[in-house]
Amino acid sequence: MQTLSRPKLCRRNLTRDRGVHSNCRSRIAAAFLAVVSLPASAAILHVSTVSPSPAPPYAEWATAANTIQDAVDAAQVGDTILVNDGLYAIGGRSVDGGNSGNRVAIDRAISVQSVNGPGVTVIDGVNSVRCAYVGNSAVLSGFTLTKGFAFAAGGVQSEASGAVTNCHIAGNSAFRGGGGALGGTLYNCTLTGNRSRTGGGAHSATLYNCTLTSNSSALDGGGATGSSLYFCTLTDNSAEDGGGVSSSSTLYNCTLANNRCGRNGGGAEFSTLHNCTLTGNIGGPGGGTFVCSLYNCTLTGNSSGGGSGGGAYGGTLYNCVLTGNSSGANGGGAYGGGTLYNCLLTGNSAAVGGGGSSDCTLYNCTVSGNTSGLVPGGGVLRSILNNCIVYFNTAPDGPNYDPASTFSYSCTTPLPLSGVGNIGDEPGFVDPAGLDYHLLLGSPCINAGNNQDWMIGATDLDGNPRISWGTVDMGAYEFLVPALGPWTSHGKYVSAVARVGVEFVARGLITEAQKDAFVSAAANSDVGKPK
């Protein structure tokens, strides 16, 4: 069995979220400052559409250039160009003999920035040329880029170390890829209403704190393809496949909402997502995702229409929550050969079968409160379950599972006729009506699972060690004595650990030696001590 690896960047932990996000944002800021820092001796050039007497070197507003390109061509490496309010719809050139013209071609390491921001400073491609080209170590900041058109990258094309900041990239189009942006790095930008054959918003780019809305692609990746996105929001994008993102995109701490596709992956297709939220996306199959890898993600209210996999189709999900997703066929939460570790599936529905999951393999998952409409398996259909809890689901027949599903070391009812280590008693959730599926003290699922290699270094859905009392618990959450807190007294905490240990010894869940080790660890901890 493969050992789980946990990404170190921006990993969600309920007790450390604020610090992690702060660290990630600090790194973003540092990266941005590294890009835009310029030599102290750099010259400042000026551009204004109403300049009465433009004259190089454009050192004052009275002699400012009338076009941005004139100032770029006069600038030296390290210079800054300040651009006054206005509509810039003339000027420009191609780069290195390329076929696509650019309204502004920044082919040297300089900074071009507006004085008053994108609301009043517009670079217009008049549907005939690309709005901007940004070369290596160049920066474009504070513009609206609109009506650009090119074979690739209608709005802006950037080289690897080129940067675009605080720009509004809207209404551009490209025949091939990157209707809004291609390449480079974008900071704090909005990409709206752009379109292309692939990557309607962005293609092969890196985006930080960007918003991608209502972009479209004829093929895949309405919002983005082949890109890396950090702290971005993608809404109302559309494509044939991958309404939000597609084609090996990687997302960290992003929100994907109300994206849609004609076929696979309303939110994301063939991508990797860390700490992301997907809600209200529509596609079939795979309303939320199609064959993606998800880490610490939440999928809520996604739909696969008449297809299968309302939340996720295929792929691998680690420590994810799937709730309120729906399918017009099978697998309201998950479907199609997917593998799920430490996941919670609740409140999902399927018109046919497998309200929680269908045709999946689940490890240490909790499946409860799901429904199916036509066949057995309100919880799971044709699935393989290890160390799982499948309880309190509904269906016309076989509310929790169908005869084709197999269980080992799992809690469900009726007790499966085959498989080892299964139990049929109620799991003892804290508050299932309130969607709290942690285990109560005394739950038969505590220390009732089967330890496996993948658990080494792994965590449960709360981010706590996957094995806490020597033997893994069934379901997505490990039982922890700290959950009985909060603790204001170290002594009371140690006493609670001792009492739980005595009960576990009496129930045969741990040995006396293990109990003593747990109590010793509690005594040496800082829980309950003054901070």
Order of strands in the sheet with the most strands? 1-2-5-8-12-16-20-24-28-32-35-38-42-46-50-52
Structural class from helices and strands?
mainly beta
Strand content: 25-35%
Q: What is the count of helical runs? A: 4
Shape: elongated
Low-confidence stretches: 1-22, 33-38
Largest sheet: 16 strands, parallel
Mean pLDDT: 91
Tally of strands: 55
Percentage of residues in helical conformation = 10-25%
**Rg measurement, Å:** 28 Å
Oligomer: single chain
N-to-C span? 41 Å
What characteristics describe this protein?
disordered N terminus; single chain; 4 helices; 531 residues; 16-stranded parallel β-sheet; 11% helix
Task: Explain the overall architecture.
The chain is mainly beta and 531 residues long. Among the domains are: 42-147, no CATH class; 284-479; 483-531. 11% of the residues lie in helices and 30% in strands. It is built from 4 helices and 55 strands. The strands form 8 sheets. A 16-stranded parallel sheet has the order 1-2-5-8-12-16-20-24-28-32-35-38-42-46-50-52, sandwiched between helices. The protein is elongated. It starts with 16 loop residues before the first helix and ends in an 8-residue tail after the last helix. The model is unreliable at 1-22 and 33-38 (pLDDT under 50).
